[in-house]
Inverse folding.
């Protein structure tokens, strides 16, 4: 306050201390699809709503279905997503090629457009998929994009461009990947080719909004399914089933149990710590949130106060996530050995952070024992009854 006479109420708004942050959104879908319509006005309307090779932001998914044409995968994909919820979707419509190779090339080119979506549309696609178009080459391109966007890919097992014909073929195909940003599905639904992946995109976004990124896609009722394209044996008490074999190979399947549900928690990661879908997405969420916390400190004078504030804000953030049930625990600290004086003098600061992600309760064991012990008091109970 100035050292001058003042009679009244003075208001100051200091901005030091721990800053609140808005969590980044991991629930924006990036959808690659094809679409056609009848010649004339319908095609003109489609081209206006969804120009080819252009990023289009959709905030009303259900309303966008009517503008998405009648051919190709776009209208069906948007409909399946809308069945699960009302997320934000970035659509890249690509043209069907003269052959499968041409379509594949167009899809891969379309994936590249997702990378700059944030600068053009203000949102970053984090849930990526190309329902019905996810050949191996497309999946590989989607995974590369996901690594740059800190996103996650949902794709079908398509060893030859078509859905795998058997459990064995799906398991073999799974061996082509080792990425924590990828979850594979087998089989599809009976509705249309790519339906399961489109549902997964919508369900993932819905779970993010209703529960959080720490909940996997598994064992949540899905809407719009009346059957699955291949027989999948399943028994929740027996791992020696088709579903058990698929899950053991880190493939998510579809089961019928009080409705239809995805069944499987695993990514294609070759690092066990990121084997669960929730672990990968937790890491991505923390990276985003840390950047939001730390950006005000970049280029500020590096003092003891700045370092302590970074520690305090990091630990406060972790405590909030633990309280919310999104982490088991975590800690943020300054390690002197990682920050020698000459490095600090060069403007380089290292802050350490560890955390434990929330694992899904994937396997629950009941230790069931038969015993005659409870007969020991039966006589006393009968005696009390007779006496009474």
């Amino acid at each position: 306050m100035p050292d001058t006479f003042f009679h009244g109420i003075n208001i100051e708004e200091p901005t030091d201390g721990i800053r609140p942050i808005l969590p980044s959104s991991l629930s924006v879908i990036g959808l690659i699809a094809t679409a056609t319509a009848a010649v004339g006005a319908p095609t003109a309307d489609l081209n206006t709503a969804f120009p080819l090779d252009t990023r289009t932001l959709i905030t009303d998914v259900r309303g966008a279905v009517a503008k998405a044409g009648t051919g190709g995968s776009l209208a069906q994909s948007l409909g399946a997503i809308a069945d699960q919820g009302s997320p934000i979707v970035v659509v890249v419509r690509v043209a069907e090629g003269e052959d499968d190779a041409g379509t594949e090339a167009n899809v891969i080119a379309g994936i590249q457009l997702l990378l700059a979506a944030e600068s053009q549309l203000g949102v970053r696609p984090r849930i990526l998929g190309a329902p019905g178009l996810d050949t191996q080459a497309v999946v590989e391109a989607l995974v590369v994009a996901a690594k740059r966007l800190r996103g996650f890919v949902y794709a079908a097992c398509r060893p030859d461009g078509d859905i795998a014909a058997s459990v064995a073929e799906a398991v073999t195909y799974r061996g082509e990947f080792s990425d924590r940003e990828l979850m594979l599905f087998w089989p599809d639904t009976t509705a249309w080719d790519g339906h399961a992946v489109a549902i997964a995109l919508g369900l993932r976004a819905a779970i993010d909004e209703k529960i959080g990124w720490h909940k996997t896609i598994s064992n949540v009722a899905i809407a719009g399914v009346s059957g699955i394209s291949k027989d999948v044996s399943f028994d929740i008490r027996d791992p020696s089933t088709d579903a058990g074999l698929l899950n053991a190979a880190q493939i998510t399947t579809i089961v019928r149990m009080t409705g239809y549900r995805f069944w499987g928690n695993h990514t294609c990661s070759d690092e066990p710590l990121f084997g669960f879908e929730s672990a990968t997405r937790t890491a991505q969420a923390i990276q985003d949130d840390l950047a939001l916390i730390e950006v005000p400190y970049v280029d500020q004078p590096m003092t003891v106060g700045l370092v302590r504030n970074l520690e305090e804000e990091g630990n406060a953030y972790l405590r909030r996530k633990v309280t919310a049930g999104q982490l088991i625990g975590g800690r943020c600290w300054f390690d002197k050995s990682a920050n020698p004086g000459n490095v600090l003098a060069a403007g380089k600061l290292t802050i350490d952070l560890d955390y434990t992600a929330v694992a899904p309760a994937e396997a629950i064991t009941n230790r069931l024992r038969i015993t005659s012990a409870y007969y020991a008091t039966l006589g006393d109970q009968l005696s009390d009854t007779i006496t009474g």
In short: Residues 304-323 form the longest helix (20 residues). The chain has 13 helices and eleven strands.
